[in-house]
Amino acid sequence: PLCLRECLDGVVSGGSRSGPCPSAPHLHAPFFQIVDISVPRIAAWNSDELPIYEPGLDKVVKACRGKNLFFSTDLDQGIRDADIIFVAVNTPTKKVGLGAGRAADLTYWELAARRIALVAETPKVVVEKSTVPINTAEAISAVLHGAGKTRFDILSNPEFLAEGTAMTDLDNPDRVLIGGSMSESGQAAVAKLADVYAHWVPRERILTTNVWSSELSKLVANSFLAQRVSSINAVSAICEASGADVDEVARAVGMDSRIGPKFLKASVGFGGSCFQKDILNLVYLCQSMGLPDVAEYFHSVVTMNDRQKERFVSRIIHGLFNTVTGKRIALLGFAFKKDTGDTRESAAIEICRRLIEERASVCIYDPKVEANQIWMDLTAATRLDRTEVEKYVTLCDSAYEAAAGAHALAVATEWDEFKGLDYAKIQDGMVKPSFLFDGRNVLDHGALRKLGYIVYAIGKPLDPKLNTNFC
Length: 471
Ligand code: UDX
Known about the structure:
The longest helix is centred in the middle third of the chain and has 32 residues, at 211-242. The strands form three sheets. The chain has a six-stranded mixed beta sheet, sandwiched between helices. It has a six-stranded parallel beta sheet with strand order 11-10-9-12-13-14, with helices on both faces. The chain contains 17 helices and 14 strands. By secondary structure, the chain is of the alpha/beta class. Helix 11 (292-319) packs across helix 12. The protein binds uridine-5'-diphosphate-xylopyranose (UDX).
């Protein structure tokens, strides 16, 4: 079965239903109908070119499509047919109005709920898949029951998939969390959804809680993960100042079984559609609940992340003798992490924005991100029109093309392909001295120095040849 997550944006609702499948009546397993208002997007889901890149997704979609997985634009039929409706619409951070910049925008959620209320003829279980602020279930319940046509049970079932590993996370989740009301019908709804997951998840990993705990757990899980990244990134700044090595510190600290080794990789800053949005959402909740010091505590995770991106850009500028104006910088990677074409909140966007501000010439190569996406991100971030951005930015088809004639290489995403590049050949075509700024600590810095590069790596002892005279 395919689960949905909000990152598959455009997905409005997915229905799951037990019983015989219409196109394959012999099947009594749950089947899934994915419905979306976007005609091109559904057409793409029904074609050989899926609208998103996720390792392993193609295989599952091709194996299940037309059997127990269907994609359609017929929202109303999808709603009428389903026993369980997953709502997986976008809940971005509000851009304007009350809570702008922090609160979640629930417009799409409310629209979906109103549609369900209007169309549903029989009782439904409605599942919050999108990440939402706590108490959303109560508000949604009011909208759903407003029409008074039928009964709805609202469940919270947050998604913990990470992009790039979504299919293995789905197959083998640490846990599945289902929050529901304590009423008899609420508990029956929880059991019904748990039965769907029990097709492939061991029962002991299916946790059931009240709705509020479930909604809050998602925000807290992402805030804790992001907080670990910000903590190790804060440590990376201490390492650069002191001569310690952040990977050695992370290893030593992570071997404490109470701390654990995961999510301690220093980087140019975390990105992705969830971390920043969920923390800001939590911050807003804390502020609204009269807990300003708790809000401030979590907000510092985002502040530290912004600092880390700025620190990286400062290292580039100072390294290149305090100016990058007119200098060519090859940016390797634009996605927020490897194995995805997703750029939401990618650190690369902010790095580019700053380099454009400094009038550098930025040559970008990413193995998966679409050119259009990069132009959209950069015009939005710089508030310049595309012709203006094109004066500073060139998109390249390979790392070699981006690096030709460059003063510096900057690694923003940890794509495996960057580890296997021929750096001697690259250096031949670069301006000397040639600089390399590794924002992901994925390259062999000793070997690169032997080739003659001046290397900066996050949280590593500084290269004596790197200019650190900040002016
Ligand atoms: C995250 C959560 O992991 C997932 O459970 C939730 O459902 C959605 O949000 P995702 O955003 O896909 O998933 O990616 P994740 O692997 O968590 O990485 C987020 C960001 O942190 C990336 O930019 C990544 O490069 C960065 N990161 C992660 C680090 O910089 N260092 C680390 O040690 C780990």
